[in-house]
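Hi there, hope your week has been kind to you so far. For a while now I've been wondering how a particular protein folds. I'm sending you its amino acid sequence along with the backbone structure tokens. Could you read through the record and tell me how the tokens relate to the sequence? Take your time with it, there's no hurry, and the full record follows here.
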Amino acid sequence: MTTLIEKPAVDKPLWRAYWELTKPGVVALLMVTAVIGMFLATPGMVPLRVLVLGSLGLALSMMASAVVNQVMDQRIDAIMARTQNRPLVEGRVNTRAALFFAAVLCVLSLLILDVFINRLTAVLTFFGIVGYAFVYTLWLKRATPQNIVIGGLAGAIPPLLGWTAVTGEVHPHALLLVLIIFAWTPPHFWALAIHRRDEYAKADIPMLPVTHGLDFTKTSVLLYTVILLLTALLPYLTGMSGIIYLVGSSILGAIFLAYAIKLKFRNDPKVPMKTFGYSITYLFLLFLLLLVDHYFRINLI
């Protein structure tokens, strides 16, 4: 049985340790999709109260999930090179303090959303926290190589939460945004898993490259990329978006597909991380295109 690696405490400011626990980079990308979800829900400007307090509430919930994720993954993080400098592994924050921090973030998030936004958003946010921090991290991640596919739903709901924060209702267009991120998650994460295959194997995590091999995973990345590109057409096909989005998303998708093809057919160790890096750029620009197209069409009317 692998034991947690003991590391001396690192001399860094305590506030920085707590900040790192919240995975600010991941939260920032998710918040982009949530805020754009807010703007897509209305033809005009998002009410300032909703924009500020809604964003704060959602960001705190994502931070809380990230902290719980790191608490649950301490053993794994100590083994994998990319996570060995996380605060809990380095001993800069202890488990009890991290859990208390996560609880405070969670309670503040749900209070802000319930009191100042609406109950639907608060309830959906709560289920999102439970889905990511506990169902995915504690169970699915260790139970099945399809962990990222099934658990990806929890990470796909930020634009839905942004939408409901404005309208107080679940709209089919908001579900389309969720579907796009849901389809994006497997090729995004499996590209990273290919690069980190040996580390996942050492940590005894059944990621797809570990259980089914690299070639199968590369094929899966390619197929899911095709599914993603087809899914990304739905906003245009349903009338949610117009020609600006169609052209832009097609170009972004063609580039993503080119990376997936290279990953499948070229034995280049640099391609998995390049694919992973582009997938982040793809999602950011795709949602930005949705926003630009949304307001361009409104101004034409």
About this structure: The first helix runs from residue 14 to 21. The two ends are 64 Å apart (CA to CA).
